[in-house]
Input
Amino acid sequence: MMSFFKKIFGKDPFPEDVKTCYSLGCRYMRGDGVEQNYTKAAELFRIAAEQGWTEKLISPSRA
Output
């Protein structure tokens, strides 16, 4: 199964893409510039966490 990140960007996430995953997840969570979609947001947060970006994942509402 292709990850949501790969569907959008055409590649697997690299470490430098982790912040992008988190930021895009926040946009989907809030509906900021994209249609609000909690499933897509959760997938992007999961990808960020798997790549080591856990700093803000404890409370995404603070984004």
Remarks:
- Residues 4-54 form one domain.
- The chain has a mean pLDDT of 78.
- DSSP finds three helices and no strands in the chain.
- The two ends are 29 Å apart (CA to CA).
